[in-house]
Design brief:
Elements: E1 14-18, H1 26-38, E2 42-45, H2 60-72, E3 76-81, H3 97-102, E4 106-109, H4 114-124, E5 128-130, H5 143-153, E6 160-161, E7 171-174, E8 177-186, H6 187-192, E9 206-212, H7 216-228, H8 231-234, E10 237-244, H9 254-262, E11 269-273, E12 284-286, E13 289-293, E14 298-301
Parallel strand pairs: 1-2, 1-3, 3-4, 4-5, 8-9, 9-10, 10-11
Antiparallel strand pairs: 5-12, 6-14, 7-11, 8-13, 13-14
């Protein structure tokens, strides 16, 4: 499927805010929207952005309607989910890939939004962004994070070498040099879609994974499930982001799991990428062509992820 790139994000553009998974306090939504306005953006809200219905904000159909309305709204240039949480996978059957393809625009997020980012790319060809959620637009967000986000969404810079923040080193554990489309994101979200029509396709692709609050025995289980599902067999390279606040189980750390399970696969393997749930967040385009060079310890986005 042909790759589609969304239009570049510029000051004065309109950002559409939607709640696609778990609900978020109205005060948090409003304060983050104020930050966006202070940065020069206009803001519009989905009908169900403030809603609460137990674990999720609203019914799957209602949340999907909010998302599709943002794609159809010609004024909206970026769609910004308020948070992840739980339940984003519920909306996938109610989305219209044809409309999304005809109205390409920036959509960004991480955590439970991961499955949406990959499904949109897989079924429409639109590059999506493993980057900010609404909750990240706050005064104490590191300047590094903003620079990374706006370089990806508001710049035609290419090729773009991905650099971790100072003091946090990228580490290459298996040497190699591969180029392919980047897919992946949150480990829990990706495993949750196995066996569904929205299961991630890693064939010939570079596979990114990260997680948060997952004990290492759970990470072990998830990695083994992906192994048995052929996702590591099919990919050409692996990037492991950090596992943020992940408790150690059975005296086995996250890095121990990487060394015991993934290094033996012999595929180019980079670890310690700062993204998503980490304090520092690199924004990465899902579906973009990237070069993973673990001989030189570099990750490079080869082309702009937006168009002028």
């Amino acid at each position: 499927m042909a790759i589609i790139k969304p239009p570049i994000l510029q000051s004065g553009d309109t950002v559409g805010i939607v709640t696609l998974g778990s609900p978020l306090d109205a005060a948090v939504i409003d304060s983050r929207a104020t930050t966006l306005r202070n940065m020069g953006f206009n803001v519009v809200f989905g009908q169900y952005v403030y809603s609460r219905s137990g674990i999720v904000a609203a019914s799957a159909r209602q949340r999907a309607e909010d998302l599709m309305m943002m794609f159809e709204n010609k004024q909206v240039k970026m769609i910004l989910p308020s948070r992840g949480g739980t339940g984003v996978i519920d909306i996938l059957p109610y989305l219209d890939p044809r409309i999304i393809r005809q109205n390409p625009k920036i959509i960004t997020g991480y955590s439970d939004v991961t499955i949406l980012l990959n499904a949109i790319n897989q079924f429409t060809g639109l590059e999506t962004f493993h980057g900010f959620l609404l909750i990240d637009f706050k005064p104490d967000t590191p300047v590094y994070n903003y620079n990374e986000f706006f370089t990806a969404t508001s710049s035609l810079t290419a090729p773009r070498v991905i650099n971790n923040p100072p003091g946090i080193s990228l580490m290459s554990l298996v040497s190699g040099n591969v180029t392919g489309q980047l897919v992946g994101g949150n480990l829990t979200s990706i495993v949750g879609a196995l066996g569904t029509p929205y299961e991630i396709d890693t064939r010939g692709k570079i596979f990114l994974l990260e997680d948060v609050h997952a004990p290492t025995n759970t990470v072990y289980r998830y990695l083994q499930q992906l192994m048995l599902a052929g996702k590591f067999r099919d990919c050409i390279g692996i990037i492991m982001g950090q596992c943020t606040d992940c408790p150690i189980s059975y005296n086995t750390s996250y890095n121990d799991l990487i060394n015991s399970l993934l290094v033996p696969l012999g595929k180019p393997l980079m670890t310690n990428l700062a993204t998503a749930h980490n304090y520092y967040k690199i924004t990465l385009p899902i579906g973009a062509e990237v070069n993973l060079n673990t001989v030189n310890n570099t990750l490079t986005v080869l082309r702009p992820s937006v168009v002028a």
